[in-house]
Amino acid sequence: MLKTQISLDEIYVPIDDCMKVRLGLVKPEDIDELTRRHFDQAPVVDKRGQVLGTITVVELKRLLESNEPLSADNHAIDKHRLSVQPSLGDLLKALTKRQATIITSLSGEAVGLLTISDLNNPSFRAFLYPWLIRLEIGLSKMIARKYPEQWDWIRYLPEHSQVSIVGYWKLTERRNVEANALHACTVTDLIRVLAADNELRRTLGYAGEKEAAVSLGQLPVLRNGVMHPVKPLILAPTDVKKLAERVTCVENLLNRINSLPPG
Questions:
Q1: What is the domain partition of the chain in residue ranges?
Q2: Among 23, 54, 57, 87, whose Cα sits 20 to 30 Å from the Cα of 43?
Q3: At a CB cut-off of 8 Å and minimum separation 6, what does 96 contact?
């Protein structure tokens, strides 16, 4: 069963650790501090300390320049909230539409702030990694079932890939290590075979080779991003949408693979 619910406990910033702004006249020093710390948004709290939502630094600057108070009915306050245990789809959908959201406990209490930068947290990558492992295993098994004779699928690959794969395969044989040619494939190699084979491609839901190559071509990008714990997954707000599209592609492929009869 594909795990789609993610815990954000190790990802969000606790509300007590956040710099918050209060209702009323905007303080220049608050904007200066937010800017100094490279924050684009901040939680808004009322006089009782209750979290109302998030506000952008851009809106705070506008209020300051026009000498307007920050009021609870300000339409720029984003009141969106996300459970601390959302589905992966809901998480990415929320951060595709906004750069930050309030995180709530299972009882509904505001407990933290989550921004698009927090998707670079190693715990988020750790959640995605098993999806990619299962996908590569599933794609490899599809090829192995269709082609008991390994030379029959190797022909779909460019010569340099054939040399690398066959060299690994034959070298391991000489060392008396049990292996096959699929063990030497990169995810890009698997994609090339699946896109070129009419039956396998259609099984994955793609009518044409070009459509399959473009869609499946997202997978190496996602895999490389998840596999490099230091390199950020998210560098700009538009990266969240791209990540959501790639994750959706992986989920759809896994669902198709899991629906295949065993064998």
A1: 13-119, 122-258
A2: 87
A3: 240, 241, 244
